[in-house]
Design brief:
271 residues; mainly beta; Lipocalin; 6-stranded antiparallel beta barrel; 5-stranded antiparallel β-sheet; 3 helices; 13% helix; 42% strand; globular; Integrin_alpha_N; signal; VCBS repeat-containing protein
Length: 271
């Protein structure tokens, strides 16, 4: 019997590893009431954020996706090969999925595949009527030209985003409740802000901030924080914002680093 030298085995294993694509960690958006597909938002690989098409090229069909709400893991699912999302967003990519349980709510949920825990810290929901947060939103809107904004805060979430021991507060406000209007009225707005304390001082970082000082033909947005997940394994939580207008939907992902929030992924259909 002839034995293959150990060095040749190691070289062969190294060559096989080099020829295999590095793992990718994809993010899907699951629309309420749609249980057959997930929209491919993008992913993370080799220390980079990837758009949907580059993410799709690295998928091998073996990933197991964990479905998350803001505070809980809800289900586990598999997804099949990506395909066109079809009309009206044929340029987007969807993955065929089978959701094993009924998913709650009327807002999009997010599914993510990675070997680490994507939800290491859970946000605490605070009262949307708290004067401090309403005043912060009012000041932000006045700085954008709304002299007397009608403040409607819908979400206030407290969580340590960057695992530094200090709690951030995420504030979401929309001028309109319910279905978005087809045309913007004067005073319409939608915004997501992060309140931080740095060296004893409070500052407000705007993630999404749409303000209509005057009426116009543009369709105004509604926004909501859909999930807070660690999408790159560094222990920090990315902020996943779901948005919609009368003509479309979208998702933005923001990452906190160096005291700044950066938009790292953006997906949209009709918006």
């Amino acid at each position: 019997m002839r034995f293959v030298p150990l060095v040749l085995i190691l070289l062969l294993e190294a060559a096989l590893a080099a020829s295999s694509p590095p793992p990718v960690y994809p993010l899907l958006r699951l629309e309420p009431g749609v249980v057959s597909r997930g929209e491919l938002i993008g992913g993370r690989a080799l220390g980079r954020w990837l758009g949907p098409r580059e993410t799709a090229l690295r998928l091998d069909g073996r990933a197991r996706y964990r479905v998350f709400s803001l505070q809980h893991e809800l289900a586990l699912l598999r997804a099949h090969a990506p395909l066109s999302a079809g009309v009206p967003c044929a340029g987007n990519l969807s993955l065929r999925v089978r959701v094993p349980v009924a998913l709650p709510g009327t807002e999009p949920l997010y599914a993510f595949a990675a070997p680490w825990n994507p939800l290491p810290r859970r946000p605490v929901a605070l009262s949307a009527q708290t004067r401090t947060y309403r005043d912060l939103v009012a000041a932000a809107l006045r700085s954008k030209g709304l002299a007397r904004p009608q403040v409607h805060v819908e979400q206030v979430l407290q969580v340590d985003l960057d695992a530094d021991g200090h709690l951030e507060v995420i504030i979401v406000a929309n001028s309109r409740a319910g279905r978005p209007a087809a045309r913007a009225a004067a005073g319409d707005y939608a915004g997501v802000w992060v309140r931080q304390q740095v060296d004893g001082r409070v500052r407000l970082l705007a993630l999404e901030q749409e303000v209509h000082v005057r009426a116009g033909s543009a369709a105004p947005s509604r926004v909501r924080v859909g999930a807070l997940l660690d999408l790159d394994g560094d222990g920090r939580l990315e902020v996943i914002v779901s948005g919609k207008t009368a003509v479309g939907v979208w998702t933005s992902v923001f990452s906190l680093a160096g005291g700044q929030m950066s938009k790292v992924l953006r997906w949209g259909c009709g918006a």
